[in-house]
Amino acid sequence: MILICFPWAAGSSAIFTPWHTNPSLKAVFSSVVCIDYPGRASRSDEDPIEHISPLVESILKQYECFNQNNQEPIVLFGHSFGAIVAFEVARHLEERGMQAKAVFVSASVPPSKTPLVETAVSKLSTDEICDYFASKGNPVSDVLRSTPELMEMFIRNVRVDYTCLETYPVSDSKLKAPLVVVGGGLDRGVSMEDLENWNKHALVDSSSFQEEAKDGLTHSTSTVMEHHVLTKVYPNEGHFYLNDEIIKSDLANFISETVLSLDNKVASNEDVEEEEAVEILEHVHAAFAKALGNVSGEIISSDAHFFNELGGTSLDTMILTAHLQRTVGMRVTQDEIILHPTLNSLVERIMELKNLSSNAPALDPIESVVGQWYPASPGQEQMVALFDTSPTMYNMPTTVEFHGYVDAEMLQRAMEHVTKQQEGLRTVVKFDMVRS
């Protein structure tokens, strides 16, 4: 496992140097990668990048640990500006079908806040930038002020990084990766409300990583927010608590403990999924036996083909579909059975469909568009009677799987537009049946 760290605006990866030898991190991570941004610090000979998206793309291309061929899980940590970079790196990875094991965001407002930076720092003079940093609790050192070359480089880096923040398009994106938030109770730029609002960007409930986060310092506390994110707060610290070596060591311990706790949680989830798979296998086995008239089910092996080996027909799939709907609690279409005709393959597909349906965003209902009524033809009357006796016979819903970010509202509007344009999709069958 690899820990990847991103520094604050105009900061250097050197702030994370002690983490290379930290015992708790070494016990969990094979390496700690501390990143400098293009045109800054150790990469000052490169052209600086002034916008978040190309900056992130540059980082993803630069480091092998973000390559899909890399088998080691990655954990991201970013402080202040680095937190936004870490969030965007995680988001870009998920768009490519990859996922960080966890994302730690430290001393940062969430991407959904408008604006991210209340002061246009990139437009300030040198003296005003120094005053700005002093107001945040991190005054520019006398050594830096007395060295024109270093001061010039520092001011350039500040302007570049803050241009990234000031031009950042506000995002409501959610991460699949677990999200952990760290902050200072006396931070003048990041409030407790800001920390809690990171919850809006968490797709997974991260609060159960640790039932109670351990407290390594008398002046630090760890707390679990009421919603999705695990949050650690140093109540007596401002924005730049990473300058404190004791706190930095404590934070390293917290990262290690949280990641190990996450491993335990994943193992627990896998146990639950395995139990569910066994239960579904029993239901599918019983459904196969019922559809094939094989009450005992003794000859049905896990890899036997429903059609080729067991002699099932398309009519048998109707019985199979109806039985699965009653026992498994979901509608499994005939085409799914055709594509997954063995016990094992159908169980795996049902588990996959359950996960897809549980993570799908809820859409508001669309009002039906009802036109004029027309009398049914004899063939349509037969179809109505067929539906009354076997409602699942011609009902074949399907599932479409999207990879990457999907704008649910835009998708809904597109479907509504197609429905309005196609009269056949607005057809409604109205009937009254008199039963004796």
Quick structural gist:
42% of the residues lie in helices and 8% in strands.
Q: Which word captures the global form?
A: elongated
Task: Note the main sheet.
Answer: 7 strands, mixed
Terminal residue distance? 70 Å
Radius of gyration equals 29 Å
Q: Which structural class do the helices and strands define?
A: alpha/beta
Series of secondary-structure elements, N-terminal to C-terminal: EHEHEHEHHHEHEEHHHHHH
Strand content: 5-15%
The overall strand count is 7
Keywords:
single chain, 436 residues, alpha/beta, Rossmann fold, seven-stranded mixed beta sheet, 42% helix, elongated
Question: Explain this structure to me?
Answer:
By secondary structure, the chain is an alpha/beta fold. The chain is built from 13 helices and seven strands. It has helices at residues 23-28, 52-62, 81-95, 126-135, 142-145, 148-166, 192-196, 245-292, 314-328, 334-339, 343-359, 378-389, 408-421, and strands at residues 2-6, 31-34, 74-79, 102-106, 179-184, 221-224, 230-234. Strands 2-1-3-4-5-7-6 form a seven-stranded mixed beta sheet. Helix 1 links the parallel strand 1 and strand 2. Helix 2 packs across helix 3 (81-95) and helix 8 (245-292) packs across helix 11. The longest helix has 48 residues, at 245-292. The model is unreliable at 209-227 (pLDDT under 50).
List the helices and strands and how they pair.
Blueprint: E1 2-6, H1 23-28, E2 31-34, H2 52-62, E3 74-79, H3 81-95, E4 102-106, H4 126-135, H5 142-145, H6 148-166, E5 179-184, H7 192-196, E6 221-224, E7 230-234, H8 245-292, H9 314-328, H10 334-339, H11 343-359, H12 378-389, H13 408-421
Parallel strand pairs: 1-2, 1-3, 3-4, 4-5, 5-7
Antiparallel strand pairs: 6-7
Helix pairs in contact: 2-3, 8-9, 8-11
